[in-house]
Model the fold of this input.
Amino acid sequence: MGIAIPRNFGQTLESGHGAEVQLLVDGSDSNTSSIAIGYAESIVRLYSASVRVRNVAPPRPPAGRSPHARLVQQLARIENYVVPG
Done:
Protein backbone atom coordinates (compact mmCIF):
# COMPACT_ATOMS: atom_id res chain seq x y z
CA MET A 1 0.00 0.00 0.00
CA GLY A 2 1.21 3.49 -0.76
CA ILE A 3 -0.12 6.94 -0.03
CA ALA A 4 0.51 9.93 -2.30
CA ILE A 5 0.20 13.25 -0.47
CA PRO A 6 0.69 16.38 -2.61
CA ARG A 7 3.35 18.93 -1.61
CA ASN A 8 0.78 21.66 -0.95
CA PHE A 9 -1.49 19.47 1.21
CA GLY A 10 -1.03 21.51 4.42
CA GLN A 11 -1.32 24.86 2.66
CA THR A 12 -4.49 23.77 0.90
CA LEU A 13 -6.08 22.70 4.20
CA GLU A 14 -5.03 25.92 5.95
CA SER A 15 -6.64 27.96 3.19
CA GLY A 16 -9.96 26.27 3.95
CA HIS A 17 -10.16 24.20 0.79
CA GLY A 18 -10.47 20.44 0.57
CA ALA A 19 -7.26 18.51 -0.05
CA GLU A 20 -6.90 15.16 -1.74
CA VAL A 21 -4.61 12.20 -1.12
CA GLN A 22 -4.24 9.07 -3.23
CA LEU A 23 -4.16 5.54 -1.83
CA LEU A 24 -2.42 2.91 -3.97
CA VAL A 25 -3.22 -0.73 -3.15
CA ASP A 26 -2.00 -3.96 -4.75
CA GLY A 27 -5.15 -5.89 -5.62
CA SER A 28 -3.49 -9.29 -6.13
CA ASP A 29 -4.80 -10.43 -2.73
CA SER A 30 -8.30 -8.97 -2.62
CA ASN A 31 -8.98 -9.88 1.02
CA THR A 32 -5.85 -8.16 2.32
CA SER A 33 -6.47 -5.20 0.00
CA SER A 34 -10.01 -4.79 1.29
CA ILE A 35 -8.81 -4.83 4.90
CA ALA A 36 -6.08 -2.27 4.14
CA ILE A 37 -8.56 0.00 2.37
CA GLY A 38 -10.94 -0.25 5.33
CA TYR A 39 -8.21 0.82 7.76
CA ALA A 40 -7.16 3.67 5.49
CA GLU A 41 -10.75 4.91 5.16
CA SER A 42 -11.11 4.91 8.95
CA ILE A 43 -7.93 6.94 9.36
CA VAL A 44 -9.00 9.44 6.71
CA ARG A 45 -12.46 9.78 8.29
CA LEU A 46 -10.97 10.47 11.74
CA TYR A 47 -8.47 12.98 10.35
CA SER A 48 -11.18 14.75 8.33
CA ALA A 49 -13.39 15.00 11.41
CA SER A 50 -10.55 16.48 13.47
CA VAL A 51 -9.84 19.07 10.76
CA ARG A 52 -13.52 20.02 10.63
CA VAL A 53 -13.66 20.39 14.42
CA ARG A 54 -10.57 22.64 14.43
CA ASN A 55 -12.08 24.88 11.74
CA VAL A 56 -15.42 25.37 13.49
CA ALA A 57 -15.74 28.09 16.10
CA PRO A 58 -16.98 26.83 19.49
CA PRO A 59 -20.59 27.73 20.25
CA ARG A 60 -21.16 30.70 22.50
CA PRO A 61 -22.88 30.07 25.82
CA PRO A 62 -26.34 31.56 26.20
CA ALA A 63 -26.33 34.96 27.88
CA GLY A 64 -27.03 34.95 31.60
CA ARG A 65 -26.16 31.27 32.23
CA SER A 66 -22.87 30.25 33.77
CA PRO A 67 -20.95 27.24 32.44
CA HIS A 68 -21.48 25.57 35.82
CA ALA A 69 -25.27 25.91 35.56
CA ARG A 70 -25.23 24.40 32.06
CA LEU A 71 -23.09 21.48 33.24
CA VAL A 72 -25.45 20.75 36.14
CA GLN A 73 -28.41 20.86 33.76
CA GLN A 74 -26.70 18.47 31.32
CA LEU A 75 -25.75 16.05 34.09
CA ALA A 76 -29.33 16.03 35.32
CA ARG A 77 -30.43 14.71 31.91
CA ILE A 78 -28.00 11.77 31.85
CA GLU A 79 -29.69 8.41 32.22
CA ASN A 80 -27.99 5.08 32.91
CA TYR A 81 -29.19 1.94 31.20
CA VAL A 82 -28.29 -1.56 32.37
CA VAL A 83 -28.60 -4.24 29.74
CA PRO A 84 -28.43 -7.84 30.94
CA GLY A 85 -26.06 -10.10 29.10
Summary: The longest strand covers residues 2-4. The two ends are 40 Å apart (CA to CA). DSSP finds three helices and two strands in the chain.
